[in-house]
Amino acid sequence: LSLDVPTSILSVLIDLAKNQDMRSKAAANAELMARIGKRK
User: Any idea where the Corticotropin-releasing factor domain is (predicted)?
Assistant: First the structure.
């Protein structure tokens, strides 16, 4: 059990990091699309 808990916490932290990375990439893509849209 003492080994399971840190592993699950680590996996949760990794998932959170991935989600944040995906969000930042999505935000960057949305910003890029907005800039392209404004040019047209």
Answer: 1-36
Q: Which residue has the tokens 């930042």?
A: 24
24, two tokens: 């930042």
Distance CA 33, CA 38 (A): 9
What predicted TM-score, i.e. pTM, was given to this entire model? Answer: 0.59
Task: Please enumerate, as own/partner, the contacts of 4-7 that have beta carbons within 8 Å and a separation of 24 or more.
Answer: none
Q: How much of the chain, in percent, has pLDDT values that exceed 70?
A: 90
> In degrees rounded to 5, what are phi and psi of residue 3?
-85, -30
